[in-house]
Design goal:
The protein is of the alpha/beta class. The protein has a domain of 137 residues: 3-Layer(aba) Sandwich (Rossmann fold), CATH 3.40.50. The strands form two sheets. It has a five-stranded parallel beta sheet with strand order 2-7-1-8-9, with helices on both faces. A hairpin with a 2-residue loop joins strand 5 and strand 6. The longest helix is centred in the last third of the chain and has 33 residues. The structure holds guanosine-5'-diphosphate and adenosine-5'-diphosphate (ADP). Guanosine-5'-diphosphate binds next to helix 1, strand 5 and strand 6.
């Protein structure tokens, strides 16, 4: 890495598109050397989840106190629960020179864009709406009503994909994982080129 400060990488997209699945594939891969920012949430812990690994699980009161104390770089209420990215971990880890990876829903991504315009924004898109619906049904975590609601939301969210730096279609998990890793690598190369040009210009002007 040529830059001292790490890159902030944001992976977002509609519910059921496969954000969690692609994120796991990325972090299970030996080539990945960026850090995952564990979010805080007020939702119920699911079977198999571990506090401090999957999420930091908080009560609504605890979460709202953290909002008041400005402890999030972004937070959103999603299907009745709060989700947020802790500011301290992200800023410290980037300052230490590591890339930080966020997997968050689209409202939170919008807030990150305002605070970190230099971050890398990747939108994960489904091959089509039929497959998105199939994935939500097969996942088996939501009622038909909630699925309908999520599909309606997804239609709205898909219109926002042109605000992102890259769109990755999640047709196949490993292909999507590879595309995300390539995009991050390319961003580092571009940043290094810009920095070296800038150094040259500064030397010429001095
Ligand atoms: N804005 C925001 N969204 C988050 C954060 N952490 C997770 N999410 C998103 O919240 C949504 C719900 O997550 P979760 O309850 O784990 O369910 P699932 O990912 O749909 O299985 C997903 O779209 C996550 O990407 C966060 O810190 N901030
Ligand atoms: N490329 C893919 N092809 C087929 N099914 C997928 C793919 N990616 C994810 N899935 C499945 O789709 C469902 C939703 O994925 P998940 O990662 O929970 O989505 P999100 O985190 O975006 O809500 C899961 O059952 C997952 O196994």
């Amino acid at each position: 890495m040529t830059s001292e400060k790490g890159l902030l990488i944001v992976l977002s997209g509609p519910s059921g598109v496969g954000k969690g699945t692609v994120r796991k594939a990325i972090f299970d891969h030996p080539d990945t050397d960026f850090k995952y920012s564990i979010s805080m949430t007020t939702r119920q812990m699911r079977e198999g989840e571990v506090d401090g690994i999957d999420y930091f699980f908080k009560t609504r009161e605890e979460f709202e106190l953290l909002i008041d104390q400005d402890k999030f770089i972004e937070y959103a209420e999603y299907v009745g629960n709060y989700y947020g990215t802790p500011v301290e971990y992200v800023e410290q880890t980037m300052a230490d020179g590591h890339d930080v990876f966020l997997e968050i829903e689209v409202e939170g991504a919008k807030q990150v864009r305002e605070k970190f315009p230099d971050a890398l924004f990747i939108f994960l898109a489904p091959p089509n709406l039929t497959q998105l619906e199939e994935r939500l049904v097969n996942r088996g975590t939501d009622s038909p009503d909630i699925i309908r609601h999520r599909i309606d939301e997804a239609k709205r969210e898909l219109k926002l994909m042109n605000l992102y730096d890259y769109v990755v279609v999640n047709d196949d998990v490993d292909a999507a994982r590879q595309r995300v890793q390539c995009i991050v690598e390319a961003s580092h190369m571009r940043r290094a080129r810009v920095e070296s040009k800038l150094r040259m210009l500064l030397e010429v002007n001095n």
